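Let us work through a complete example step by step.
Step 1: write down the sequence.
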Amino acid sequence: MIRDARLTDRDKICLLADQVNRDHHQHMPNDFLKPGDTEANWQHWLTFIEGAETFLLVAENKGSVAGFIACRIIQSGKAPFLVEKTKLQVSTIVVSSEVQREGVGRQLMLSAIDKGKCLGASETTLEVMAYNKDAQLFYETLGFSEFSRKMSLSFD
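Step 2: predict the structure and record it as tokens.
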């Protein structure tokens, strides 16, 4: 079951966020901190629950939160040479390692897209880390394709 997140989901949302943050830190320690500050973590996710142009959906599995997706509605095309669009921007999606590859992520993504459409979005965007080939394949199976490439140069 997919539903809007509740304040009572706090602990599970923070645990799931730690799961994805641990993975990011392992692969990109110069960019991602080790999980640890639960209160700061919760304050970040709370902005998606309480924001006017944001939402956080959770997937329930056997009475427990098994995943979540955090999204915002953005207006693109502010430059005079770009087409103005309302977009659904996926900030984070995470599924508990215990139920990955069981369709939970797909349900979350499709529910978020439906909600985004209801809020006026005409497309969905997201960023996926270059190392995360499994996530890239997941998004491609949903019909996503590469739009641009974000590149970085470290001065360390």
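Step 3: interpret the result. The chain has one domain: 2-141.
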